[in-house]
From TrEMBL:
Superkingdom assignment: Bacteria
Entry keyword set: Oxidoreductase
Pfam family, one: NAD_binding_8
EC number(s) on file: 1.6.3.5
Annotated Amine oxidase domain residues: 86-312
Keyword Oxidoreductase included in the entry's annotation: yes
Record GO terms (molecular function): oxidoreductase activity
PANTHER family documented for this protein: FAD/NAD(P)-BINDING OXIDOREDUCTASE FAMILY PROTEIN, FAD_NAD(P)-BINDING OXIDOREDUCTASE FAMILY PROTEIN
Protein name as it appears in the record: Renalase
Signal sequence, start to end: none
Length: 317
């Protein structure tokens, strides 16, 4: 129960958090946790700043770095206006898990059903019904869809009003190829994360600097939106070599001395054309996400909170 309402969460993955994703890698009897999706979050708004002390106090979140430098082919350049970037030592997916469990005293965990892929929406006399992969169905008085707008448009069922369909169709996303490299050792570096201005790469992070437990060094790379778009349909084994060569040229020959290298494609990584408001509503069918009014993790949270407030008021009237 939240706000006096029974909430049931459906997630097509094995766990919650979406693109705030943590990859678990088994290597020589040890399990590594690597953030290959969202890399960090900021807390600039009052809503997130209000719950941040509780998240920090529980050990779910800690500050990772204040500023991020820019790497170009000319070298590393310092950037101004430092502000805290926060991470989850157990992986970025821990943030979503903590919110599902509840932060306030006496708050019950949400009911979560994983590996539940919604394929169809149906309007009913009592509200909404969703058809799942495999033929099962779930029903409720209201329906909140937190997924990229292009994926929402692919759901079966002629239920969207023309204005809603038009708003969803106007949203645009850029993809991102991510690479994970595990090393035996690394040379000394004076950075933990770098924004990169380069035709191939846009980001590099030393993921092991986020963890509380000792483990092997891990480098995470994100390709640029333009390069990812051009190579979107290629297999991982084809995109890894040019990403690693670009990293070697920018960071040094040590990049080539990895023990393990993996690639992951995010088809809907970053919204580039956003819906102007915090959520999109069709009566008690509501859409939210980082494509509504503000990108990144904080934007997604603000969108979800705004959508929840709308639904609570709507259902109470």
């Amino acid at each position: 129960m939240r706000a006096g309402l029974r909430v049931h969460v459906l997630d097509k993955s094995r766990g919650v958090s979406g693109r705030a994703a943590t990859r678990w890698i088994e290597l020589e009897g040890k399990t590594l946790r690597v953030d290959h999706g969202a890399q960090y979050f900021t807390a600039k708004g009052a809503n997130l700043r209000m719950i941040l002390p509780e998240l920090v106090g529980r050990g779910v979140v800690r500050e990772w770095t204040q500023g991020l430098s820019l790497l170009t082919e000319r070298g590393i350049e310092a950037r101004g206006s430092p502000h805290p970037r926060y991470i989850c030592p157990d992986g970025m997916s821990a943030l979503g898990k903590a919110l599902v469990q509840g932060l306030e005293a006496g708050e019950a965990p949400l009911s979560v059903e994983t590996k539940a892929t919604v394929q169809e929406l149906r309007r009913t006399a009592a509200g909404w019904e969703v058809g799942l992969e495999g033929g099962a169905a779930r029903a409720g008085q209201a329906l909140l869809l937190n997924l990229p707008a292009p994926q929402a448009l692919k759901l079966r069922g002629e239920v969207f009003q023309p204005a809603v369909q038009e708003a969803l169709a106007a949203v645009r996303f850029a993809p991102c190829w991510a690479a994970i490299l595990v090393f035996e050792t690394l040379p000394y570096t004076d950075w933990v994360g770098l924004e990169i201005r380069h035709p191939v790469l846009a980001w590099a992070a030393l993921d092991h600097t986020k963890r509380n437990l000792e483990g092997p060094p891990v480098l995470v790379l994100h390709a640029s939106p333009e390069w990812s778009t051009a190579h979107l349909e290629e297999p991982p084994e084809a995109v890894l070599p040019p990403m690693l060569e670009a990293a070697r040229q920018l960071l040094g020959d040590w990049v080539g001395r990895y023990r393990l290298a993996l690639a992951h494609r995010w088809r809907y990584a970053q919204p580039t054309v956003l819906h102007p408001w915090r959520f999109l509503a069709q009566d008690n069918l509501v859409f939210c996400g980082d494509w509504c009014g503000g990108a990144r993790i904080e934007g997604a949270l603000e969108s979800g909170w705004a959508a929840a407030d709308y639904l609570i008021r709507s259902l109470q009237n």
